[in-house]
Specification:
Order of helices and strands of chain B: HHHHHHHHHH
Strand content of chain A: under 5%
Largest sheet of chain B: none
Shape of chain B: elongated
CATH topology of one domain in chain B: Four Helix Bundle (Hemerythrin (Met), subunit A)
Shape of chain A: globular
Largest sheet of chain A: none
Helix content of chain B: over 70%
Oligomer: heterodimer
Distance between the termini of chain B: 77 Å
Number of helices of chain A: 15
Structural class of chain A: mainly alpha
Structural class of chain B: mainly alpha
């Protein structure tokens, strides 16, 4: 399928441009470019969210700083960075610093195995792919609890407890909902999963609704993992001020806000990789009816869908669509109570995702999904 | 041995792990001890990543730094004893953090000596290096081979470490039970129970319920 080095981002661009340049230098430049792109998106995701929420609430949203208010988020970041840093009296110095550092580092590291195209556009290729992202995400709950405890504030501590409990409760359905996909493909590598969907169709529309349900569970768990409305119980403003983030100011607050959007972005990308074909721009499987009946159309489609720039743009646009849906949910829904929320996670999502896993495994094993519909 | 770029992060991580172990053992508060332990576990995970064992890295982070760490944090936060107290008895001496550090260093040197003697021995050269298709300077593969050798032909260290862990777990359970028993039998606890019972029984309509 691809002849590109998985550890060499932008090989298709750099090799013709600088054929004599040392490879390690190009790898460093390519990785830096991709990492910067992932991080710069965190300045635009809040803008899209605030604009969407503004329009839904009959407001204009950010509109003063820069054209169409597009520089509002960089201006907010700058303001937070130059504000005076403060630490509550009695706070644990090490825990107060390291919790922010650990949370931020883990959120940035999660982007390493995420491919932006089939032509080696991966910041750091790892064969375990999703397992690595999941492992890095699992540092988040203890760090939030440490941050809450070290703030020496009861609001932060209760928020930290809630945050850790919530993250653990929704990590498990999140993993089990995609285990069926992983078992079907036979790989944790996100690139392999996307290429499998290019050939056989997106998982969201396969397996007689089981894929749709698994995708819904994954999406809801992802929203819960990012602690956003309607699952923002740790940040319950009316009772907990800002939850575990209450005492963090200045650059620490900026870092934690960035982490929130990094998590949202990472979960959106994971949802796309597992259920919506990742960087694949159209839902037409290569082993299906259209490709076998109209081979010329199939060849043209393959040329477009394997183009590096098309894949890169497709993934970005799809991810912003998920950001739009998350913003929509934020402005439209009310917050759960913590008991409702935990009951929803443990009693409904977890058994359903386990049942779906069984359906996936049994179905794939005895090939009950092998029937070819006109679109598959 | 030829210089490799991997040695720089490895050395930094090794120093950090040792410092984190020391801080974890000598921390004043339980929570501080637990979070230093978590940092140490994360750093061990990165050592696995340096050795190209990605799957071990993932499990180290998921199981130890993520799952068990949260359990320990919850346990630390939900218990009343936060400060480390030291009495003058022999138990107090063993529980002293400096003694623990000394015991740890003793065992660490012991294990290190066993490992070094194993590497320098003829069995290691015959089983690992002789069958290796890689060069001596390929450090990542050397670490992998060494790990497989450790697992296959050097089970004593694993058993020794397993016994150490088991002893620590049993000791902590024993200490927790002892402290609970002591608290339940203390005069202060009995007095508190008695006062609470009197307060409740003095309320109108509560006499029967307290007796039951």
């Amino acid at each position: 399928m691809t002849n590109f080095d998985p550890n060499f981002p932008f090989e298709f661009l750099f090799t013709p441009l600088w054929p004599d340049a040392p490879k390690w230098l190009l790898v460093v430049i390519g990785t830096l470019l991709l990492a910067t792109y992932s991080l710069v998106n965190q300045l635009f995701a809040p803008y899209i969210e605030r604009k969407t929420m503004g329009r839904q609430q009959k407001r204009r949203g950010p509109s003063y700083v820069g054209p169409f208010g597009i520089l509002q988020i960089p201006a907010d970041t700058l303001k937070l960075l130059i504000k005076a840093d403060s630490r509550p009296a009695g706070a644990d110095r090490t825990g107060f610093f390291v919790s922010v550092f650990g949370v931020t580092a883990s959120a940035i590291m999660a982007f390493a195995p995420m491919p932006w195209g089939s032509n080696g556009l991966t910041p750091g290729h790892l064969s375990i792919g999703f397992l690595y992202v999941f492992a890095v995400f699992s540092i988040f709950p203890p760090m939030m609890l440490i941050g809450g405890w070290s703030s020496n504030s009861k609001y932060s501590l209760i928020g930290g407890f809630r945050s850790a409990g919530q993250l653990i409760a929704y990590e498990i359905p999140m993993l089990t909902s995609v285990l069926g996909v992983i078992a079907t493909v036979g790989s944790f590598d996100l690139n392999v999963i996307v290429i499998y969907q290019m050939e056989h169709g997106w998982f969201l529309f396969r397996y007689w609704g089981a894929g749709l349900l698994a995708g819904l569970i994954f999406f809801l768990s992802g929203i819960a993992e990012t602690e956003r409305v309607p699952f923002d119980i740790p940040e319950d403003e009316a009772t907990l001020v800002m939850g575990p983030r209450t005492e963090f100011a200045s650059w620490r607050m900026a870092a934690l806000m960035m982490v929130e959007y990094l998590h949202m972005w990472a979960n959106a990308l994971l949802f796309l990789y597992f259920f919506m074909g990742g960087y694949d721009f159209i839902f037409i499987p290569q082993d299906g009816y259209i490709y076998s009946t109209y081979p010329e159309l199939g060849t043209a489609l393959t040329a477009i869908r394997m183009n590096g720039w098309v894949q890169f743009l497709t993934l970005s646009i799809k991810a912003y669509m998920i950001v739009f849906i998350a913003a929509w949910m934020r402005s439209a829904l009310a917050r759960f109570r913590i008991d409702q929320f935990l009951v929803f996670g443990w009693k409904y999502l977890l058994p359903t995702s386990l049942g779906l896993l069984m359906i996936f495994l049994i179905g794939v094993d005895i090939n009950i999904f092998g029937i070819n519909w006109w679109w598959s | 041995m030829e210089f490799s770029l991997t040695l720089i992060p490895f050395t930094l991580l090794a120093v950090f792990i040792l410092a984190a172990i020391y801080k974890s053992l000598t921390a004043e508060k339980t929570m501080q001890s637990v979070y230093w332990l978590i940092f140490m576990l994360v750093a061990v995970g990165f050592i696995f990543l340096l050795a190209n064992s990605e799957i071990l890295f993932a499990y180290q982070l998921m199981v130890y730094s993520g799952g068990i760490a949260v359990l320990m944090l919850f346990a630390g936060l939900l218990t009343e004893q936060d400060e480390l107290f030291i009495d003058s008895s022999i138990v107090g001496f063993i529980k002293t953090s400096k003694t623990q550090v000394l015991i740890f260093i003793f065992f660490a040197i012991d294990v290190l000596a066993l490992l070094l003697s194993s590497i320098n021995g003829s069995a290691y050269e015959e089983t690992v290096l002789a069958n290796s298709e890689y060069t001596y300077t390929d450090s990542a593969h050397q670490i992998k081979l060494f790990a497989s050798y450790l697992w296959n032909g050097f089970a004593e260290v694993i058993i020794l470490l397993g016994f150490l862990l088991l002893t620590a777990i049993l000791g902590s359970v024993k200490l927790a039970i002892r402290e609970t028993d002591l608290e339940e039998l203390s005069d202060e606890y009995l007095a508190r129970i008695a006062t609470t019972s009197e307060d409740i029984s003095s309320l109108p309509g509560m006499e029967d319920e307290v007796e039951v």
